[in-house]
């Protein structure tokens, strides 16, 4: 069963996702990030600049190198190149999340993000998934 971790009250969700992806990459786990195309472009830019001495190799899912790249940015999960870690930056439950060993839900502190995060939390809980919560302070 997929392990699901909620990271809530993160403030800047993209910066937090960069740090989370760095940690996942350093642990040797491939990851897929799911979000809308505009958010993926913003994350792509931030991954290049957030820690100049700690590059996180990444590419868009449409890239010919996606299968060989540790972090893949995708707007849908059709044809995802690996199924170890999924980072959800979207507002909805990912349709194929159960294919992944681990799902990391990143929830910002904006009201609409909190509402969407609560709905996703209820969805997983009501289906019997064990949920881990990591609430950020400040």
UniProtKB/TrEMBL annotation:
Transmembrane segments: none annotated. It comes from Paraburkholderia kururiensis. It holds the Pfam family DNA_pol3_chi. Keywords: Nucleotidyltransferase, Transferase. InterPro entries: DNA_pol3_chi, PolIII_chi_sf. GO terms for molecular function: DNA-directed DNA polymerase activity. This is DNA polymerase III subunit chi. The keyword Transferase applies. It is an enzyme of class 2 (transferase). Its EC number is 2.7.7.7.
């Amino acid at each position: 069963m997929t392990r699901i971790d909620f990271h809530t009250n993160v403030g800047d969700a993209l910066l937090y996702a960069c740090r989370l992806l760095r940690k996942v990459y350093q642990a040797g786990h491939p990851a897929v990030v799911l979000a809308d195309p505009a958010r993926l472009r913003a994350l792509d830019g931030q991954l290049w600049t957030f820690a100049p001495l700690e590059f996180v190799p990444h590419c868009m899912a449409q890239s010919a190198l996606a299968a060989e790249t540790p972090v893949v940015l995708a707007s849908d999960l059709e044809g995802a190149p690996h199924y170890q870690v999924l980072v959800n930056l979207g507002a909805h439950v990912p349709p194929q999340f159960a294919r992944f060993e681990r799902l990391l839900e990143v929830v910002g502190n904006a009201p609409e993000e909190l509402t969407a995060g609560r709905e996703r939390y209820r969805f997983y809980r009501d289906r019997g998934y064990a949920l881990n919560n990591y609430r950020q302070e400040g």
